[in-house]
Amino acid sequence: MIQGDMTSDKSSEAYPVETFCDDCYEAMAPGTEDSPVVQDQGYDPSWGQVCADCGKTEEEELEEQNL
Ligand SMILES: [Zn+2]
């Protein structure tokens, strides 16, 4: 899992941190001009263990990587 600071319009934070699985992170095309990802912060379990987009858990992600 990878976190990105998102430039979403959530009112509480200018740069909320969300957790995403690898698939969703790749889908956001990090590093491109249109990408909502402004910073890859690496994975910290304290930010949550479920993908904010598709709901995949850290456990499921690890299982996929072990296939
Ligand atoms: Zn996902």
Bound molecules: zinc ion
- Report the order of strands and helices: EEHEH
- Gyration radius over CA: 12 Å
Question: How many discrete domains?
Answer: 1
Shape, per Cα inertia axes? globular
Residues in helix, %? 10-25%
Note poorly predicted spans: none
Oligomer, anyone?
single chain
Mean pLDDT: 80
Trace the largest sheet across and list its strands. 2-1-3
Helix/strand-derived category reads alpha+beta
Major pleated sheet: 3 strands, antiparallel
Number of helices: 2
Give the amount of beta strand, in percent: 15-25%
Number of strands: 3
Descriptive overview:
This protein has a 3-stranded antiparallel β-sheet. The radius of gyration is 12 Å and the shape is globular. The chain has one domain. The mean pLDDT is 80. It has 2 helices and 3 strands. The protein has 67 residues and is of the alpha+beta class. It binds zinc ion. The site of zinc ion has 8 residues, from helix 1. Zinc ion binds next to helix 1.
Structure, briefly:
The chain has 67 residues and is α+β, with helices and mostly antiparallel strands.
